[in-house]
Amino acid sequence: GEQVEQRPPHLSVREGDSAVITCTYTDPNSYYFFWYKQEPGASLQLLMKVFSSTEINEGQGFTVLLNKKDKRLSLNLTAAHPGDSAAYFCAVSASSGSWQLIFGSGTQLTVMP
Amino acid sequence: ETAVFQTPNYHVTQVGNEVSFNCKQTLGHDTMYWYKQDSKKLLKIMFSYNNKQLIVNETVPRRFSPQSSDKAHLNLRIKSVEPEDSAVYLCASSAGTVSDYTFGSGTRLLVI
Question: How far is the alpha carbon of A51 from chain B, nearest alpha carbon, in Å?
Fold first, then answer.
């Protein structure tokens, strides 16, 4: 079945720096990809959902890149600020038809002032 | 307000007790899910359910069971809790494609 590997598990950056989180997946038939942010004690906040037909997607303060050839998904926070400190998860839809999401193991991002 | 609602937010219980968590969605979705987020924050599917089919992750222990009265509700029952059941349980729903996946706020279970 689908496997999703997320790196790095922990990331510390200074305010204003960029932060890049990457996920690789194994199922070439996966077609929906998600990035979630989770603050301490809170649920999952959807940052962006990406369809396999679009390779670059821009949000507010971040960019999501999808490289289908390498089966790689990345989240780039372009100018991180302390409010971005949280856990980030990628998720990939399984192609089996059960509509489950396969999550990466998460990245704990700390943005230092 | 249309969303996925979970109760309780937090529950503490002793080993061997039975617990039940509620989930209701007002989005008109036809598929609901339960995910478990463990102490290392790893998220894994437990069940997916619509009015036609229940799909169970084969790694889920038999003491866990989903219970549904209609397509807007999917509760989670744990028959006899064990310490490793301490986790956050997240309910979600979708309208049959994953593009509109919506998560609830979660129920945090502590087994002592």
Answer: 8
Q: How far is A91 from chain B (nearest CA, A)?
A: 10
Cis preceding-peptide flag for A8 (omega within 30 of 0): yes
How far apart are the C-alpha atoms of A96 and A30, rounded to whole Å?
9
Q: What is the pLDDT of residue A19?
A: 97
pLDDT classification of B58: cutoffs 50, 70, 90: confident
Residue B25's nearest CA partner among B101, B81, B77 is B101
Q: Given an 8 Å threshold on Cβ–Cβ distance, is B98 in contact with A101?
A: yes
Please state whether beta strands B43-50 and B102-103 pair in parallel, antiparallel, or not at all (unpaired). Answer: unpaired
Residues A89, A35: Cα–Cα separation, whole Å? 6
- The pLDDT-based confidence of A97 (bands split at 50, 70, 90) is low
Kindly report, residue by residue over B40-52, the tens digit of the pLDDT: 999 999 998 987 7
